[in-house]
């Protein structure tokens, strides 16, 4: 009996000693991080050309990327005209989007036109990219249906152009574009080429809700960029997720240069 009591008393001590043997501090030498230019630029017909130029930071540094005041942004049209965007940080209240550079001229490109972008800064860094202007794909119908709990689902329908790869971004906002989106995802026509496509939601809306529905016809490079950003967000802090790298459309930096071709409708849910 005494022998068993001694054994029971020793077991916790043995477990503690074993766990101590398993702990070991390891010093990892990380290479010095070289900041890169981070650029976002979205051309929209009839609107001023605007871009955001920031600088990336290391994982253990402050999370807010700094602006780059000495960066110069050029956008070249299909005619060869080179427009310089001025450094003029501004927050657009209607969309909640922040820009660092703006032109005084508006973009007048037509579907099929190719625009080029070049960004240089005082440290000799250079970022380049190009975008091919897309045509708008019209929203044919936005409808909703109620269930027996007075909850409504939303259905948005459009026609996909046949015999060509197409990529879309679908977004809905409640009341205003300045807040976060209610829904936001990208899709392709791999399984719906040339078909009439309907995008639906769950039963989540109520009578009286004002919804802003936007369908973007996007480039493959923008589709890849958005999908990679979503994967990176999902992997952040998740020990079971595969690390994901942002698929940039730019040479010499990180980010996206593309154009926004979209159709938008505002509806109020009514019975």
Automatic annotation (TrEMBL):
Keyword terms of this UniProt record: Signal
Keyword Signal: yes
InterPro entries the record matches: DUF4249 (IPR025345)
Signal peptide per UniProt: 1-23
Protein name as annotated: DUF4249 domain-containing protein
Organism encoding this protein: Pontibacter chinhatensis
């Amino acid at each position: 009996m005494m022998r068993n009591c001694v054994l029971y008393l020793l077991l916790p001590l043995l477990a503690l000693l074993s766990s101590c043997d398993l702990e070991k501090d390891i010093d990892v030498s990380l290479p010095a991080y070289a900041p890169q230019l981070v650029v976002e630029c979205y051309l929209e017909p009839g609107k001023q050309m605007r871009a955001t130029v920031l600088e990336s930071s290391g994982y253990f540094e402050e999370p807010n990327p700094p602006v780059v005041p000495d960066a110069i942004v050029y956008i070249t049209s299909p005619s060869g005209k080179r427009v310089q965007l001025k450094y003029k940080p501004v927050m657009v209240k209607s969309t909640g989007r922040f820009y660092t550079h703006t032109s005084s001229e508006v973009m007048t490109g037509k579907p099929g036109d190719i625009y080029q972008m070049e960004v240089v800064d005082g440290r000799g860094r250079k970022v380049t990219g190009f975008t091919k202007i897309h045509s708008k794909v019209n929203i044919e119908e936005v409808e909703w249906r109620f269930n027996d709990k007075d909850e409504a689902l939303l259905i948005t329908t459009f026609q996909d152009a046949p015999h060509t790869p197409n990529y879309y971004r679908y977004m809905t906002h409640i009341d205003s574009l300045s807040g976060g989106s209610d829904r936001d995802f990208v899709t392709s026509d791999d399984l719906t080429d040339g078909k009439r496509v309907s995008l639906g939601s769950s039963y989540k809306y109520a009578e009286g809700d004002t919804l802003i529905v936007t369908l973007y016809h996007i480039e493959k490079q923008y589709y890849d960029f958005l999908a990679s950003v979503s994967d990176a967000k999902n992997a952040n802090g998740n020990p079971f997720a595969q690390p994901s790298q942002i698929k940039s459309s730019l040479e010499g930096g990180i980010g996206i240069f593309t154009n926004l071709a979209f159709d938008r409708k505002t509806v109020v849910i009514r019975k």
